[in-house]
Amino acid sequence: MAQVAVTVNGRSYTVACDDGEERHLLDLARYLDKHVKDLSDQVGQVGDARLLLMAGLLVSDELSQMLARTDELEAEIERLKAGRQTMVEKAQKAEASAAEVLETAARRLEDIAGRMEAS
Question: Where in the chain are the domains?
Fold first, then answer.
């Protein structure tokens, strides 16, 4: 198991992670640190615990919005799939109807041709 030193709000923390996940953990820490710095600029130093809590809530809110958007997009994909299936069914019916019309026309033409030969 790997250990990574991350810095948030000017403080260093050692965090364990799975081997190979070090870069991802550092990226996450930088993302959290950016939120902490932005909050600190807005509200001042109100203590590490409070800044981390507020930043965590902001990140959680972003995640919540993204999850809701993902749900919306997945629902839209399902609607599009259902609509596609409906379109395929309509196209198949139209194709069958066109084939029937062509068969009827071919029979009529054969009848006409037969009558013309008989005359």
Answer: 2-118
